[in-house]
Amino acid sequence: MKYDIRQRSTHMVTDATAYHAIDSDEFANCKPAYEGDSPRAFLSYLDSNFRDEASLLSNEKYLSKLTIDTLYSLFITPQLMPLNSTKNIDEHSLLEISDNDPFLSIVNALPEGYSKTPKPKKGKLFIM
User: Fold this and answer.
1) pTM for this prediction
2) Contacts of 4 (CB under 8 A, 6+ apart)
């Protein structure tokens, strides 16, 4: 019998933008105004209030051009570059085999312990 065999590995890649300097005092007159006093509070404020272009445009008169450009670079058009990768470091390679039946190819390609029904995806927000 003819089999299709492949090797598969899984690894993780982390992408990030460059760091951007932002002065929290500049947001005192924005709508809503920033009133916090910690890095975590400022990050939460930005994340809650400046993720869309309409928010940026509505506060454009209160912020410098550099800050507006910086917020665009972070939220609207981020330039993500590879930061970290586990490729060639923490790979777990495994062989997969299937016969030439298209249905069985999908079922047999699942590694042992994986169910045929995909699990729901969950997201987490990490604030550093």
Assistant:
1) 0.61
2) 97, 98, 99, 100, 105
